[in-house]
Amino acid sequence: LEKNRALKVLNLDGNVLCDGGAQALSSMLRINCTLTKLSLVGNQIGIIGLQYIITALEKNKTVTEICLWDN
Q1: CA gyration radius for the chain?
Q2: Structure confidence by residue, pLDDT tens digits, 22-69
Q3: Is the overall model pTM greater than 0.85, yes or no?
Q4: Distance between CA 1 and CA 47 in Å, rounded?
Q5: What are the helix and strand counts (H, E) for the chain?
Q6: Long-range contacts: 21-28, Cβ < 8 Å, 24+?
Q7: Looking at the DSSP assignment, which residues form a beta bridge with residue 10?
Q8: Does residue 49 contact residue 18 with C-beta atoms inside 8 Å?
Q9: Phi then psi for 28, rounded to 5 degrees?
Q10: Are the beta carbons of 51 and 25 closer than 8 angstroms?
């Protein structure tokens, strides 16, 4: 996903990513410049994982919509 230039919407709902998965995803978000929507519903992401994502989104200017329900 770091090198992806086509995918604009990514739905990872219900994959139980937890904080470790959120950390890995945040690495991609820092670099990816095509993704606009991200859904992470029901992934058991805690405060630490959310901090990773927020930090990445501060650098990512293309994601305009993120869904984090039920985490």
Answers
A1: 11
A2: 999 999 999 999 999 999 999 999 999 999 999 999 999 999 999 999
A3: yes
A4: 24
A5: 2, 3
A6: 21/45, 21/49, 22/48, 22/49, 22/50, 22/52, 22/53, 23/49, 23/52, 25/52, 25/53, 25/56, 26/52, 26/53, 26/55, 26/56, 27/2, 27/56, 28/1, 28/2
A7: 38
A8: yes
A9: -65, -40
A10: no
Q: Which residue's entry shows tokens 């998965």?
A: 21
**Residue that has been written with the tokens 């519903």 in this structure:** 41
In contact, 11 and 40? CB cutoff 8 Å: no
Q: Which two tokens stand for residue 66?
A: 């993120």
Q: What's the rounded Cα separation, in Å, for the pair 41 and 30?
A: 20
